[in-house]
Amino acid sequence: MQTDYAGTAVAEADALTDPGFKASLWRWRWILGYLFIAWGLAAQIPSYLPMAPAESLGGQPIAWALSPGISANLDGDKLFWEAQRPGEHWASRALAVPDAAEFVRVSFCLAGDAPPDTAAVLLASVREGRLDFNRQYRVNSFYSGLAGECFDEPIPRRTGDGPAVLQIQLLSAPAALSLSALEVGALRENPVWRLSRMAMLVLGVVLLALLFKDYRHARPRLLAGAGLITVLGILFGCCVSVSLKADIYALLTGGRSIDAKVSMQALLQTQFPLGGFSIFTFLHAVLFCGATFFLGLARRHAWWDMVMLAPMTETMQLFVPGRGPGTRDMLVDWCGVALALLLVVLLRRSQRVRTFLKY
């Protein structure tokens, strides 16, 4: 009978450095408590305070600049857009935003059903002489909009941002969109919330540092170190502000913008580009896959830590201005974990890999 010494050595190393699945689950008890407190704070403390009463846009149809082929009608506080000709159509209007405003809140309700991919509501700000689409916000694209459904989106601004442009796009024709209670308001961050979110971000990072510190003793150290560095990249990505995230995106992609030195009327007649698959969504999967792969080769049950890291990082985004948790992002994270887990299981069956892992 042939003895698999490499496999035995790997098993012994796992037994010494891997706490096991139940122990791994127990290690996350403090994180679960953090998640409970975080969502409680988010529900109880208002994040923003209004600087002035919100401005209603429903009774001002004449202020909208319309593309050819789209018509607008007013019915009380409701705005109704309709496009009959083929192609994409839009309605735009300029918004005067106070310099001291830290956020712009766009809110509205659907006065009628909106089929999937019927329309999009977008907002972009003029900054440094350009209308910046790297910081464009797709408030909603009505993937399943029903009459009476309401939407509320606080959109962050930076010092130096000038006027904003709100645009409503009809993405197909014939198409119609009816909105009520369409309002825009200037906001500032609640000082109590600012202190709370800063404390929660620091606490979250400390808890994760304590949880992952045991990987310093995992073998091989090179793989464990690579995994920990990748986890640091994940934490940086989840805690970075939306403005810095937009700057990084512009650096990686070359950026998208329009010269705003032309007249505002010319800007209002320009259709906003719609963003596609975000590079950051792709990085979610890559980073979680990489961290799970490296740590999974160093410790057998590392996949569980990465599964739990996904909701933790999404929750921490509650405390980053302009950011927020996303179910889609968490699912993308888990897809990266699942792919890495499959690769780790296959590699651990290899004699050469087991021989390497015993060191």
Automatic annotation (TrEMBL):
Entry keyword set: Membrane, Transmembrane, Transmembrane helix
**Record bears the keyword Transmembrane:** yes
Give the source's domain of life in one word. Bacteria
Q: Does the keyword Transmembrane apply?
A: yes
> Transmembrane residues, as ranges?
31-49, 192-211, 223-244, 274-295, 331-348
UniProt protein name: VanZ family protein
